[in-house]
Amino acid sequence: MTDITRVYYTGDVCNHPGWFTATERPDGNLTLTEEPGDLSFDREFIESPRHIGRQYDGTCNPRFVTADAHAAFKACRLALVRASVEGRAPHVAPPIPRAQERGAQLSQFVHDMLVASARLATIPTVDAVAALLVARDGAYVVSGHTFTDPASAKAARLLVAHAVRLDMVRGLSLVRALERASARRLWTEGERTCAWCHHAIRALDDAEELGLSLVHHPCAVEFGEWANDGKSDEQIAMEQREQRREQQWATLRALEAGEPVTVNDDDTF
């Protein structure tokens, strides 16, 4: 035998709260029938009395609470508001978010987690980044330093690869992470002045390497415009094609002469 005759459905992100009449069943459970109202949907639930909350804090857990628990919650909230209005309370308790707001927060959290997982799945491993550094700089050169011991070079390269991968996890592209690794070496060596404008560089995020020196990002753009000397994109592309063509002809002449050369993808004719 239970004393519960009326319960309040606390609702959630997909269901509207409402009042229900509780009728005891022969098996000891309760049949909860929604009371008529402007926002009622003639819903009906079968619930155990053990799952009916005797205390209510404004959230959707538990799903059902007794009428006394709901009345006590409303009285407590009303007392806090009245005390705040009358200036008798140092502060008002923070409002409890509604079920829809909590659902939106949960959806945003799940979305952010999925995006982070997808981004993490596309980020190369530390070994893959280290192999890329070997292909770019060679087995004995790491961040501008030349090593004679292969073990020392590998250890230094793994530290750089870890930093590159961490920057990619934080959202940087591979190219930007590699540029930041080069700038980090100069930064840790104590270089703090822009080689172009000769002003102080406040943080590593504001710097990039240019000609074995650190410069501000805007200064690097300004240097690029100055180096191009007002040339159009078409002129720059034409010069790059001419440079590649000259490199291809030099590779071909070396091959014909029997000299050892390294053929890259850009050397195809």
The biggest beta sheet reads: 6 strands, mixed
> What Rg, in angstroms, do the CA atoms define?
34 Å
Structural class: alpha+beta
Mean pLDDT: 78
Widest beta sheet: strand line-up: 4-3-2-1-6-5
- Number of beta strands: 10
What series of H and E elements makes up the topology? EEEEEEHHHEEHHEEHH
Question: Can you put this structure into words, describing what you see?
Answer:
The structure is a single chain. With 269 residues, the protein is of the alpha+beta class. It folds into 4 domains: 1-122, no CATH class; 125-190, no CATH class; 191-230, no CATH class; 232-269. 47% of the residues lie in helices and 13% in strands. The protein has helices spanning 67-85, 99-122, 126-137, 150-169, 174-188, 217-228, 233-256; strands at 6-9, 18-24, 30-34, 44-47, 52-53, 64-66, 141-142, 145-146, 207-209, 214-216. Strands 4-3-2-1-6-5 form a 6-stranded mixed β-sheet. The termini are far apart. The mean pLDDT is 78.
